[in-house]
Hints:
Elements: H1 4-22, H2 28-62, H3 77-85, H4 93-96, H5 100-116, H6 124-156
Helix pairs in contact: 1-2, 1-5, 2-3, 2-6, 3-5
Amino acid sequence: MYAIISWAYLFFFPLLMILILLGPSSFRHILLHLRAAVQFSLIIYAFYLIRQLIGLYQLRKLLNMPANKLDYFGSGLFEMGLIIVLPFLFLKNSILRTWSVGFVIWLLLVHSITRQGWNLQLDSWSFVSSLLFYISLITGIYALLWLLKKNTAASAI
């Protein structure tokens, strides 16, 4: 279910960037906060990838596979490391409000999914539940960012 985060990011990040540039200025503020929530969701995706790597390590230990015979991701290990590490830069508010790091992560995800193949295997019910999961995740992150903004504004008074 967490794999939908990367696919949704590939779709929503460029869409939000186009809407921010070409859309009406009255909605720009909301779209900027929505982009921040979409970027912040990549932190949860990074935790998902970390858990996948831990599972692969545990499987290797369970099957007594030597480390030199096991190639988890081929040449994509550095790429996966960047996809895991870069979203944590969004914890800094000034980076969260920019688009440059988000664009670099978007390019890494496009390259990763192109290398793996563009197939997301979901049946109709799985797609609906994944979509509802992503909508609730973005809503929760948007609310969290809003509360953090209100909290810092209240503490500054």
